[in-house]
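User: My collaborator sent over this chain with a note saying "see what the structure looks like." That's all I know about it. Can you take a look?
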Amino acid sequence: MLSATVCAIDHSPKITKHIVMVNSVPVFVGLLTVTNEYGEIRILALVATKAHAQFETALLQMKSSLELYGHQMPSYFFTDNMSDKAFLEKCFPSLTVDVVPVDKYAKFPLLQLPPEIRVHIKSTATQMTSALACIQEKLAAMSQDEKIIIGFDMEWNVDLTPGKGNNCCCCYSI
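Assistant: Without extra context I'll predict from the sequence alone. Here is the result:
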């Protein structure tokens, strides 16, 4: 029955480290909390992943609750994850009303990597193992005064749809 004009959404991994472990592995990765403009909790959900599918139903139920009790739909949603933007706008179209996007960095030229930097994207375990072997070979062939700089990022998308696997992507540059 609570309002939710201004919301904040956050995942916290703290509590899940202390509850429901199977073979010493936590069942839940986080506690999703959505609070309203008064700091009141609108949603509290234990989630197995940070995937949007884990809490979409809870958001849609909150939307139904707001409609049922005649409350205004959210105008603002604070999040620390920009990938939530389109998802939250899909759940709450009210977030797009009277919004005029500002192209803050339009005056800057696009970033271009220097030609000596190569980006390699690997999507399978075999490709990642091969990439690591290549890096180890380079390290073994180097002298003590040489150095290698590696930028590394890894994303792991979990799809809980039956029959679909987990997608892992590793990106690095040398």
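A starting point for your reply to your collaborator: The chain has two domains: 6-96, 119-173.
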